[in-house]
Specification:
It comes from Jaculus jaculus (Lesser Egyptian jerboa). With about 475 residues, this protein is an alpha+beta fold. The chain contains nine helices and 20 strands. The strands form four sheets. Strands 7, 8, 9, 11, 16, 17, 18 and 20 form an eight-stranded mixed sheet that branches.
Length: about 475
């Protein structure tokens, strides 16, 4: 197919010199120049020309010609038709939106009433004469603005998704690292345990071997002693049986002696005690297994955090113990200075130290025997201390609340949790890098709730109380 440039060049060669458009019904005059029939006819009808048959001249070369000498140029008409066909095909090949499908002309305008694109010929047509017709760029302006707004929203959404992807990929990498570390810890601990078990097995089997030998030895001694006693009593029995056969006169002179047999024991008391005491030899194994399990759970779990309550943040209605490990609610306000760090509306207190990374855990012993509530979790360092504060993640607070026999997770919308047993000891675990705040029953190990967050600044343990007699204490 001819290129767009070559087709355009050919089209320029078949333009009418009068209208500068493509030749329509081309005719040739005496000088050999070609014009549209309608254009040349109008040219010959110019007002004021006298004796037109003698005075008309070619619009190009000014050579005289006779109006009646028009000769249709059918060959040129075929060439023009072929060029237009190639031009339309070229326009369609470049994109149908650039050319009018009806006239093959380039589209410049847009009709707002009919919402169609127009070329010059379409615009001049009567169908759009009374309509609002604008240039394409002007008409496309509002659409471009709408597209730009959509692009802005989509780019923002894409950035948020990319941020989520980046955050989650980091979280996955942290988890993979933690799993690899746990795997190495398990291998190391079980290797140590395997060595210890092999040693303990050797010790216990050796002790059992010695007990086995001592039992067999005492069995031999017992058999020897019993055999001797049986022989002795058998001899005495034979003697007495022989005397018993004698006449009555001789029996009167026989003296009969009774002898008691010695009752030997097959197992000596000392050996029996050793056998009974053998389970005690497994106590080191039992103790070692307990240490192993505690150490393994410790290394696989979170690092116990040493938590102390910060009196500078404590609400005036909270009474803190001297060691800053316990708090009790009181309706009586304490004489506490109103510092920027202190909560003045919600009855809460923070820990003295916060966390900027790592995996930490602490246990809270909750006493709500007289009613009331207890709030536990973590907060961002910049959490608002003054005025009303909504306890939810959007405010930088991730907490659960124990109150009136039930537990609620204070998310964007509070969620009441269904638990098998009301916890009295709650374990709070923080995985800073992964972004987990997990609550569990420290006694039964039952999972209570887990918040998922993305931490970027320091976070502190938070504790809250409400209600007469409610209290809590901290432990590892």
């Amino acid at each position: 197919m001819a290129s767009a440039t070559s087709v355009t060049s050919l089209a320029d060669e078949v333009n009418c010199p009068i209208c500068q458009g493509t030749l329509r019904e081309p005719v040739t005059i005496d000088c050999g120049h070609n014009f549209c029939r309608c254009c040349l006819t109008r040219y010959c009808e110019i007002p004021g020309q006298e004796e037109p048959e003698e005075s008309l001249t070619c619009p190009l070369c000014k050579e005289p010609f006779r109006p009646g000498s028009f000769r249709p140029n059918w060959q040129l008409a075929n060439v023009v038709e072929n060029i237009e066909r190639l031009q339309l095909a070229s326009l369609r090949g470049l994109g149908e939106e650039d050319a009018c499908p009806e006239h093959g002309e380039k589209v410049y305008f847009f009709c707002e009433e009919d919402e169609v694109q127009l070329c010059v010929v379409c615009r001049e047509a009567g169908a759009h004469g009374a309509h609002t017709v604008r240039f394409l760029e002007d008409a496309a302006g509002p659409y471009r603005e709408q597209i730009q707004k959509c692009l802005t929203c989509l780019r923002k959404e894409r950035e948020e998704i990319q941020e989520i992807q980046s955050r989650e990929n980091k979280r996955i990498q942290v988890l993979l690292t933690q799993v690899a570390t746990k795997r190495q810890q398990v291998i190391s601990q079980f290797a140590h345990l395997s060595q210890f078990l092999a040693e303990q097995q050797s010790v216990l089997l050796a002790q059992l071997e010695r007990l086995d030998g001592d039992i067999l030895k005492q069995q031999e001694e017992f058999e020897s002693l019993v055999t001797g006693e049986i022989c002795r009593f058998s001899t005495l029995i034979e003697e007495l049986e022989e005397k018993n056969e004698r006449p009555a006169r001789e029996l009167l002179t026989v003296r009969c002696e009774t002898r008691k047999c010695r009752k030997p024991e097959a197992v000596s008391p000392e050996l029996g005690q050793r056998i009974r005491d053998f389970p005690q030899q497994a106590l080191p194994l039992q103790q070692e297994m307990k240490i192993f399990l505690e150490k393994l759970c410790f290394e696989l779990d979170y690092e116990p955090a040493s938590i102390f309550l910060d009196p500078q943040t404590s609400h005036p209605k909270l009474l803190l113990s001297e060691d800053h490990k316990q708090a009790r609610f009181s309706y009586k306000w304490q004489n506490s200075p109103d510092t920027p760090q202190r909560f003045d509306r919600i009855t809460c207190v923070l820990a003295q130290s916060g966390f900027t990374g790592g995996r930490h855990t602490w246990v809270v012993n909750v006493d709500l025997a007289h009613g009331g509530s207890c709030t536990l979790g973590v907060v961002r360092e910049d959490v608002r201390r003054k005025g009303e504060l909504r306890l939810r993640p959007e405010e930088g607070i991730w907490v659960v609340r124990l109150a009136w026999g039930f537990v609620s997770a204070l998310g964007s919308f509070p969620t009441r949790l269904v638990l098998e047993k009301q916890p009295r000891k709650v374990r709070v675990s923080l995985d800073y890098e992964v972004g987990w705040v997990t609550f569990s029953n420290a006694v039964t190990q039952e999972h209570i709730y887990t918040f998922t967050a993305s931490f970027a600044e320091k976070v502190f343990p938070l504790f809250g109380l409400w209600g007469r007699g409610s209290s809590f204490s901290l432990s590892h």
